[in-house]
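On to our target:
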Amino acid sequence: MTMIDAAARAELTHGRAANPAIKVADIAYVRFAKPDLDAAARFGADFGLLPAARTADALYLRGHGVAHHCYIAERAAEAAFLGVGLVAADGRDLERLAALPGASPVESIGEPGGGKRVRLRAPNGVVVDVVHGIETVAPSPMRAALLTNTVDNKPRRNAAQRPPLAPAEVRRLGHVVLMTRDHARVLSWLLRSFGLIVSDYQVLPSAPDAGPVIAFLRCDLGTTPSDHHTVALGAGFVDAFEHAAFEVQDLDAVAMGGEYLRRQGWTRAWGVGRHILGSQIFDYWRDGDGHMLEHYADGDLFDAAVETHSTPFSKHGLAQWGPPLPADFIDTSLSPRKALQIVSALAGRGDFSLKKLVGMAKAMGR
């Protein structure tokens, strides 16, 4: 089982590191391996991403904001999640990261958009690029948020509400969610390496001493508010990508964008609803390889003064409203392959325990 020192334990309780190497400013991109770049481009366009660049072996997609790209697909024989990029607030931060054990030197990024990076590998093997100086682009115009009439304020008069049936117009990449067997050690590494702050923990009502099931981490921007979470880390019996989330304009963009995806034949994973932690209006979709991407709008923002909170984990604690959680969103079936993964996780170096497994099953009504 994972052993962490007393200082790391105190930092996890407090939800932030005492002296992080740097404080990242945002998320930059997610990177995938894809056997069919044309199919990846089709899903990206239907999802609301714009083309940024394409080489013989890679596809780069962007949102309507200023980031050069926020999604990378590299040609490969099999689909896979390859890693995530985070944004350094200052170029000098890259030198600080390069001094960490196992980090790469500061290197030029030989991809469209340029810039420099340091490449690190989390304790669970996930590749994390910390980047600085990637080119920005002129923002692409977006449809304005719909003018909404409320019971006390009705600014829209002599006009009907007719949102277009069209892709949702992604503005930016907002967060990534990862699963790991070694929750405490990976979480401690994220806090100490990148200065992230835990906004919320979700803990097991039946086993609170088993450790958190999910940690939602935001960037520390001081007095400037940041997204409720830029990275979320879930406890599980495999190390895996769970989903990436992209911000769109409003509820109608989420819903109409989902209707457009449905009519194009893509598979909805879960939605439309509103989360509890983070408050986002959400809609989850799967691309042709099964990778899950989320549209969201109206998320919470917190500055560094807000303390870490804990709430119970349950299948009913994921949304304020929306359709029931589908059975395959969090797969609770027990196949021989999964049984082997569970046994491996319980016998391994991580902190995934039998108490946590049983507590998670109870919380999910299994």
In short: The helical segments are 6-14, 37-47, 92-98, 183-194, 251-263, 336-347, 354-363. The chain has a mean pLDDT of 93. The domain at 6-139+167-363 is CATH 3.10.180.10 (2,3-Dihydroxybiphenyl 1,2-Dioxygenase; domain 1).
